[in-house]
């Protein structure tokens, strides 16, 4: 570790990404005395919240829970203004933390890492950037986020469009003025559900191209009442401890474990109603088998559809907006503020692209079903190459020159979502095979940062040269992730959890559905057993001493 001090080319660890994960990884390793370099493509910190500046962008986890829990001082100094914080407020919070901890001095902004090669002789990673910079590090950490690689479908004629076009995941920092314009929005996932009501306030005409009708419920966002945020600060640290052992990393509501058949039907309906009107993800915790059996899910899905239909005046339009091809919750549940009501406005038109597929983008708009829908602006709310896209954007080569892209060609394979066999000293934060996107991401980030930092510190203290997942442990974990997923309804839907939004991407359920608390117990047991399932290379370290 000592040799890295003062070096501009040799570090103990290199981290890719300066969002919540990369910032905390930097702080944690630096506090343990390690030298760290972080690379970030953007001009500032923020990660997801740096890029996703589309109108209406806001977190779907309550702001009081969507913040770091490692510092009581930090959480007491910061006061949230809304139940669900909007993108600008979250980004201000991240900059506040970065400035308070003086993180930016160790981050290279506007720099993409293009390649990383593991050198077996030195047991170090050789890392290259787009600007021709080359550095070396013993440990290489991918903190690139699960929803960071924006995807624009390869529509024919897309380059011919003469108007403005933007992807919600790569929004202009100066904003976009839609006043008096004809706007086409392609997609009806979370970013569209959030942005469409705001765009509709300005647009003269709004065209929404829907491939999949999604479940959406009122977010119930509101300003935090006077004293509410201050009161929450008193119990925050204790609450964070409970969140680590919870199902989804959330303690703002309880999961009812009893199965629906063991509950009174009137109780179930009241529970669904209360949770629906409370807003947020509490709806999915109304009873134990809501996400496990078609019969249990149907009760909640029917309730959700009935509530959604009440908000749309035209029954024909409502029928188009109601999801009938997948269970509720198996795609990311959308929280909205006035989304369905937009379709009651005369200036809004909904186009079902399953019935009339988008054929191409023309010079003047979107062609679907033989009709050219003219537009001045096109908004691509078409999602991301989730969970693996930003990892595989870097050409990572491990032991023997094996390419991670080749290894994961049939789907990602990890041990614990933290590591992958054949790639020593490489770690993922909230990678595939971990709870990540099925949880409060801040909780999952903190779990991984703590584990990785403890691991690195432990290895350095024991003079371990390299740590690498074994193929057997990796295979067993992949089987376990699949087995747990099969006990739920998640795999039945063509969702981005499965990679289904990317043509040609293998259909593999990527997150771990066992829950944050169960997962934490498993990774702690692995560490407590001397990093069971990993090979620790001590010989070469001793030989080079």
What's the layout of helices and strands?
Blueprint lengths: L9 E7 L3 H12 L4 E4 L8 H4 L20 H6 L9 H14 L6 E2 L4 E7 L4 E6 L4 E9 L21 E4 L14 E5 L3 H13 L2 E6 L5 E3 L9 H17 L20 H14 L15 H17 L4 H7 L12 E3 L11 E5 L5 E4 L3 E4 L2 E4 L2 E4 L8 H4 L2 E3 L6 H4 L18 E3 L12 H21 L4 E4 L1 H16 L29 H13 L5 E4 L1 H6 L1
Parallel strand pairs: 1-2, 1-6, 2-3, 4-17, 6-18, 7-16, 8-9, 8-16, 9-12, 10-11
Antiparallel strand pairs: 4-5, 5-6, 13-14, 14-15, 19-20
Helix pairs in contact: 1-12, 12-14
| The top level CATH class name of the largest domain | Alpha Beta
Q: How many extended strands?
A: 20
Helix content: 25-40%
Tell me the number of helical segments per DSSP (H or I, 4 or more residues long): 15
CATH architecture of the largest domain: 3-Layer(bba) Sandwich
Low-confidence stretches: 1-6, 540-545
Q: The CATH topology of the largest domain is what?
A: FAD/NAD(P)-binding domain
Straight-line N-to-C gap: 13 Å
CATH homologous superfamily classification of the largest domain? FAD/NAD(P)-binding domain
Main sheet? Answer: 8 strands, mixed
Q: What structural category do the secondary elements indicate?
A: alpha/beta
Q: What oligomeric arrangement do these chains adopt? A: single chain
The average pLDDT value, as a whole number, equals 91
Strand content: 15-25%
**Shape type:** globular
Estimated radius of gyration: 24 Å
Number of domains: 2
């Amino acid at each position: 570790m000592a040799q890295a001090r003062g070096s501009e080319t040799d570090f103990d660890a290199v981290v890719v990404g300066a969002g919540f994960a990369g910032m905390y990884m930097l702080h944690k390793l630096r506090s343990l005395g390690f030298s760290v370099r972080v690379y970030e493509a953007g001009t500032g910190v923020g990660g997801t919240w740096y890029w996703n500046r589309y109108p209406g962008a806001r977190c779907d986890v309550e702001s009081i829970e969507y913040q770091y829990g490692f510092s009581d001082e930090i959480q007491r100094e910061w006061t949230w203004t809304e139940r669900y914080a909007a993108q600008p407020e979250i980004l201000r919070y991240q900059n506040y933390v970065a400035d308070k901890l003086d993180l930016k001095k160790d981050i290279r902004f506007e720099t993409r890492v293009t390649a990383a090669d593991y050198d077996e002789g030195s047991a170090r990673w050789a890392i290259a950037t787009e600007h021709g910079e080359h550095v070396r590090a013993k440990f290489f950490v991918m903190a690139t986020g699960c929803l960071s690689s924006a995807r624009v479908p390869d529509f024919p004629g897309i380059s011919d469009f003469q108007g403005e076009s933007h992807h919600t995941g790569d929004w202009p920092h100066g904003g976009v003025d839609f006043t008096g314009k004809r706007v086409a929005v392609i997609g009806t996932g979370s970013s569209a559900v959030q942005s469409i009501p705001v765009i509709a306030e300005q647009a003269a005409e709004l065209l929404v191209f829907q491939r999949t009708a999604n479940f959406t419920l009122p977010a119930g966002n509101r300003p935090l009442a006077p004293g509410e945020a201050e009161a929450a600060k008193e119990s925050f640290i204790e609450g964070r401890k409970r969140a680590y052992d919870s199902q989804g990393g959330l303690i703002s509501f309880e999961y009812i474990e009893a199965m629906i058949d063991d509950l009174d039907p009137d109780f179930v309906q009241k529970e669904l109603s209360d949770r629906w009107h409370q807003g947020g993800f509490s709806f999915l915790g109304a009873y134990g088998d809501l996400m496990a059996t078609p019969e249990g899910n149907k009760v909640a899905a029917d309730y959700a559809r009935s509530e959604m239909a009440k908000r749309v005046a035209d029954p024909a339009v409502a029928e188009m907006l109601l999801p009938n091809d997948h269970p509720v919750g198996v795609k990311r549940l959308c929280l909205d503020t006035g989304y369905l009501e937009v379709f009651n406005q005369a200036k809004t038109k909904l186009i079902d692209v399953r019935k009339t597929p988008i054929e191409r983008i023309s010079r003047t708009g979107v062609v679907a079903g033989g009709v050219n829908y003219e537009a001045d602006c096109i908004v691509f709310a078409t999602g991301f190459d989730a969970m693996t896209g930003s990892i595989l954007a870097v050409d990572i080569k491990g032991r023997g020159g094996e390419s991670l892209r080749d290894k994961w060609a049939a789907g990602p394979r990890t041990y614990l979502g933290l590591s992958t066999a054949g790639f020593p000293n490489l770690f993922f934060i909230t990678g595939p095979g971990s709870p990540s996107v099925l949880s409060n991401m801040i909780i999952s980030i903190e779990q991984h940062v703590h584990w990785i930092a403890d691991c690195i510190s432990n290895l350095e203290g024991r003079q371990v040269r390299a740590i690498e997942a074994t193929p057997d442990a990796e295979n067993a974990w992949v089987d376990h992730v699949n087995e747990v997923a099969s006990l739920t309804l998640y795999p039945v839907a063509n969702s981005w959890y499965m990679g289904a939004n990317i043509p040609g991407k293998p259909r593999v359920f990527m997150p771990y559905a066992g829950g944050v608390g169960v997962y934490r117990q498993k990774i702690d047991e692995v560490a407590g057993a001397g990093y069971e399932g990993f090979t620790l290379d001590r010989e070469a370290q001793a030989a080079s001493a």
